Amino acid sequence: MNQAVKVGLIGFGTVGSGVVKILQDNASLIARRVGQSVNLAKIADLDITTDRGVAVPSGVLTTNVNDILDDPEIDIVVELIGGHVPAKRFILQALSTQKGVVTANKALLADHGEEVFEAAFKSKSDLGFEASVGGGIPIIRSLTEGLAGNHLTSITGIMNGTSNYILTRMTQEGRNFGDILQEATREGYAEADPSLDIEGIDAAHKLVIMVNLAYGTPVPMDAVYTEGISKISTVDIAFARELGFTIKLLGIAKFQDQVIEARVHPTLVPTDSPIAQVHGVYNAIHLVGDAVGDIVLYGQGAGSLPTASAVVGDIIDLARNRIRGSSSRIPATSFQWESRQPLTIKPMPDIESRYYLRCMVKDEPRVLSTISGILGQQGISISSVLQKGRKQGQPVPLIILTHHSSERGIQSALQDINALSIVAEPTTLLRMEGGE
């Protein structure tokens, strides 16, 4: 074999240590796949004294990132520190010197992807980011290569393992959100500050990246409606189950007539659907293509080795290009840069969905007819109703499932419903997918 491909790693945390382990343990396999050995030349981190559970040769660790960025012999830079600053500067600097770049930084690509993609295009450098979405699930390659000949009509899935873990335990154990979140934090399934996960932001980052690749268009984060799981109650989980549904936090993208729908929110899905069977920290992404039909990709969406597996896959891909003197064979954005075009992102009030409503009402005559009348004024028809028995002097739940209706209409109806004297508290609204 010829001279080795040299890699510089920025960030020696959970995923970084996993990358080092795979590169070391599977060095022979990787060399056979690439045609040359792939050597980890430098690892830059502010902390180079903490034991990460993997041994590295003397002289590999450094606290100076410029030992990687300024070294002309390093072919591929792997950025695993996360966040916007200074990660973006490191990536742009590496691309400007024609180094290949691999990153797992979904937040950066969602918020500043256009700048990074343009830098990769102008420098004719490779940019790999398989690990930014779905951990070890090969969703990026599926979108850019395997399904490149398809018009994708929808992308739907569980894109955040922490939220799915919490909802799974709430569903199976009947316990409330706050208690499960505290335990998830202690067990390491949730961050000390879990807001990115539980408020749907992490899933929205991933959806933005996938929509960009699937449809060849820039997608601003603020165009994606985002709602988390912090307000989900065991009451609604129980009623959903009684009606044949399970609540999951979904990222949803739909494409029709050159208009894109992109949203993240808790969703009722039929209990017998594949997505409802995805439990714990696992992710699953359901794609529908005009030629291929339905595909579901399932696997661990986070964790040291699953995410590191995706990073190493990108390193191998870039190394193969490097030794053959090629780059940018597959555009980072999946579409040729000059062929991308802005498409309309449908405003949330214009989307259509089925809806679950839980109204806490006084147990009086004509309650259902009054509420159904308000829904009818907005053109919203009811598919089923679940009413619970009397509780002396207390509000009782009235559960309504609707047929497909507009978001604008349902929100307008809710304003009128919540203003009724017979309604004791704000009505709970959840959207639905499937089951009709």
* Shape label: elongated
How much is the average pLDDT? 96
Class based on secondary structure composition and strand pairing: alpha/beta
Helices, by number, come to 14
Strand residue content: 15-25%
CA distance, first residue to last residue: 58 Å
Most strands sheet: 12 strands, mixed
* Number of β-strand runs: 18
Which runs of at least 5 residues are low in confidence (pLDDT < 50)?
none
Percent helix, as a range, is 25-40%
Rg estimate, integer Å? 24 Å
Comma- or semicolon-separated keywords:
436 residues; alpha/beta; 6-stranded parallel β-sheet
Structural overview:
Helices cover 35% and strands 24% of the residues. The chain is built from 14 helices and 18 strands. Helix 1 (14-25) packs across helix 12, helix 4 packs parallel to helix 5 (106-123) and helix 7 (161-173) crosses helix 8 (177-186). The model has no long low-confidence stretch (mean pLDDT 96).
SSE topology sketch:
Layout (H helix, E strand, L loop, with lengths): L4 E6 L3 H12 L1 H8 L3 E7 L16 E2 L3 H4 L6 E4 L7 H10 L3 E4 L2 H18 L3 E2 L10 H8 L5 E7 L2 H13 L3 H10 L8 H4 L2 H15 L9 E2 L7 H9 L2 E12 L2 E12 L11 E8 L3 E8 L3 H20 L20 E2 L6 E10 L5 H11 L4 E6 L8 E7 L2 E2 H12 L9 E5 L4
Parallel strand pairs: 1-2, 1-4, 2-3, 4-5, 5-6, 8-10, 10-13, 10-18
Antiparallel strand pairs: 7-9, 7-11, 9-10, 11-12, 14-16, 14-17, 14-18, 15-16
Helix pairs in contact: 1-12, 4-5, 5-10, 7-8, 13-14
